[in-house]
Amino acid sequence: MNLKAVRWGIGGVSSRLFGCLLIILTVNFTPRAEDDTNRVAEAYHAFQDGKCQSCHPAIWREWEDSMHAKAWVDEIYQAAAQQVPDRETKCDQCHAPQPILITGIAEMPKLRDRQREAGVSCLVCHLDAKGAMNGPAASAETYFHENVTNPIYTPPTTLCATCHGQQSVPEHDQVSSFRDSEFADSSSCATCHMPIVERLQSTTSHESIKGRKHTWRGSRSVTQLKRAANLQLEYTSGKVDVKIRSRTGHILPGGVLRIIVVEVTLLTPDGTERQKQHISISAENENRLLPSENRVYTFDTASAATADTIRVRLIYQLTPDTPEPKRILMAEKTHIVP
Ligand code: HEC
Ligand code: HEC
Ligand code: HEC
Ligand code: HEC
Ligand code: HEC
After folding, report:
1. Gap between the Cα atoms of 311 and 235, Å rounded
2. Contact 295, 243 (CB under 8 A)
3. Which of 34, 179, 163 has the alpha carbon at shortest distance from 103?
4. For residue 114, how far is its CA from the centre of ligand 3 (angstroms)?
5. Which atom of ligand 4 lies nearest, measured to the CA of 156?
6. Could you give the C-alpha distances from 131 to 113, 158, 266, in angstroms and in order?
7. Which of 110, 216, 300, 304 has the fewest CB atoms within 10 Å, i.e. the most exposed one?
8. What is the pLDDT of residues 241-293, one digit of tens each?
9. CA separation for the pair 199, 183 (Å, rounded)
10. CA angle, corner 304, sides to 301 and 305, nearest 5?
11. Domain 222-336, architecture per CATH
């Protein structure tokens, strides 16, 4: 049942006198499209008034802490968008979009005229043009909104591609490299970014069922970054081979602002730095890693002496300006020179 139907039910007693007339009026004069528009508007109100939060508290908490909730208020985004003169047509439509089931899966999203600060909100991924909530199969009825089972959620890669795989916006494309990879055979975007969890989907559900966490941990998660790539070090006198294997489901790093620094340091037995070298992997350098790619970088370590330590690190920077204390150590390997 939907919001509008609930209202009718409540008003039912007093309007019974006019029952006949009302039915004729409803059938003949109320266009369906207007009903749907009202239900969509009600959903926006419900979102704003904390109704989604009150019935789906666990999912809300996860979303609230995610970058989807912050897609508009994110300072890095706002700073970048401010430099674009026609940001309203070039940028904002994905950072504060209208519901994509309404504007079209795989179509370029359209900018919302309200609630922009809610970024990629619940409604953006779940609300359809009739005011219903689409999702994987639900286990319980809800009097508050209609549930529609829609295969687009399982797996959701096509849904994600609406923003993360637009051909005309290659800067934000994680989907193409995923689809060309072996990961596409056995996994989806949800496998690594929406872990499975068993719980009550809402406070009015009767049984726990399998769902997925709405956390979308990515480049701000140390856990994600530590499993993004394998690192190996092979020393042969005078040089060291640094072997990197990407374990990320798409191009690595996934975003165009990010930098992975491959750092090789020679340390004397007392820990003093003898020599430091590095290579950066980034979109700017056009050397990002493809999924499952193996890459070898050879560094000259001729100045190393016996008992020196060779230390290799992968270090992650969110932006070129990220200060040293905020950089994240993804992996480290050491070798003592014989
Ligand atoms: C097709 C949808 C789309 C459009 C259009 C779009 N973005 Fe984004 N934006 C995304 C997605 C998806 C991400 C997250 C994935 C990524 O970083 O590639 C993102 C992330 C970002 C980030 C990274 C924020 C962070 O976490 O550090 C910045 C900055 C950004 N966008 C700026 C812009 C600017 C500036 C424009 C306009 C020139 C723009 N975006 C247009 C979808 C879009
Ligand atoms: C009165 C409580 C209530 C409110 C308010 C409510 N929901 Fe729900 N919702 C439910 C119940 C119950 C289910 C079914 C849960 C289950 O299957 O266990 C559900 C299911 C869903 C689903 C899954 C649908 C499917 O078919 O898989 C989505 C998505 C959803 N709600 C989103 C929202 C959003 C967004 C809002 C705010 C606009 C909202 N809900 C408000 C009770 C509520
Ligand atoms: C309506 C557009 C849209 C859709 C659909 C969408 N995203 Fe996003 N996503 C964004 C934007 C915009 C950002 C960037 C937010 C920012 O950093 O400012 C983002 C950020 C992310 C991040 C980065 C988080 C971080 O901390 O770096 C991940 C991971 C992510 N999305 C995964 C997904 C997955 C998986 C799906 C499909 C289930 C999906 N997204 C669907 C727009 C979208
Ligand atoms: C970026 C898109 C996106 C956003 C934003 C989003 N969801 Fe979802 N949601 C999904 C996907 C994908 C699934 C399917 C997960 C699965 O396979 O179980 C899902 C599933 C659900 C379900 C079914 C139960 C479950 O855990 O799978 C409910 C209920 C739900 N979402 C509610 C919400 C609410 C409430 C919000 C806002 C607080 C929200 N969603 C925001 C993409 C989104
Ligand atoms: C095999 C696991 C895996 C799969 C599958 C996967 N990702 Fe990721 N993703 C990661 C890891 C690890 C990171 C962190 C490293 C990085 O920043 O690229 C990440 C980071 C991201 C980021 C953040 C990029 C940034 O620079 O902020 C976005 C956005 C993202 N993934 C979207 C997606 C989308 C969309 C899909 C589906 C096409 C997907 N991911 C599939 C593992 C995966």
Report:
1. 11
2. yes
3. 163
4. 20
5. 12
6. 17, 21, 62
7. 300
8. 999 999 999 999 999 999 999 999 999 999 999 999 999 999 999 999 999 99
9. 27
10. 155
11. Sandwich (2.60)
Residue carrying structure tokens 């992997």: 281
Strand ranges (DSSP E) for 204-327? 209-212, 229-236, 239-246, 259-267, 273-282, 294-300, 309-317
Our separate counts of H helices and E strands in the chain read 15, 11
Pocket test for ligand 1, best of 91, 124, 219, 316 (most atoms within 8 A of CB): 91
- Only one residue has tokens 């690190």, namely 313
Query: pLDDT per residue over 142-198, tens digit each?
Result: 889 999 999 999 999 999 999 999 999 999 999 999 999 999 999 999 999 999 999
Ligand of minimum distance to the alpha carbon of 95: 3
Q: CA-CA distances (angstroms) from residue 111 to 11, 44, 68, 96, 181?
A: 36, 15, 15, 6, 32
Distance from the alpha carbon of residue 59 to the mean position of ligand 2, in angstroms: 10
- Ligand 2 contacts (CB < 6 A) are 43, 46-47, 51-52, 55-56, 122-123, 126, 133, 135-136, 138-140, 142, 144-145, 147-149, 201-202, 204-205
Start and end residues for every CATH 2.60.40.10 domain found in the chain:
222-336
